[in-house]
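Look over this today:
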Amino acid sequence: MALAQDMLLVSEVQFVELKKLLQHEEYDPIYLKELTDEIVLDKALKYAIVIDKDTNIILDGVHRFNALKRLGCRKVPVIYLDYNSPLIKVDTWKKGLHLTKKDVVKAGLSGKKFSPKTSKHMIRNGDNTSHISTIEKEVNVSVDSLRTG
């Protein structure tokens, strides 16, 4: 029997133009610098970014996205999933804030982004839930290949 996570995936890793992706939240500048430095040191991006198949909104990986942008990359490895699936839940890292999928989509499409680390996307698998990052695929793709597209 397939895991619920596997049923969410719409695609294996694909390479998409960076400019086609939309953010629904801002990035943390300190963490962005640390991650950018790590990617430069490794000369590679380790994991694909998780994207909604219908809107191209980044659900997990906004710091990787912005690091690649800063490094002059044109393409980015992504995994598309069905954000409308009832197996995906949105929560928040911030106490006292209520967030819905509709709020996330509105922020991504309008460009009025939430502050960094606002949304927390979770996947339900039976009685368990895990962070959406558990479905990210390891890619280890060279930054140079992402620049040339």
The radius of gyration is 15 Å. The chain has one domain: 4-148. The longest strand covers residues 75-81.
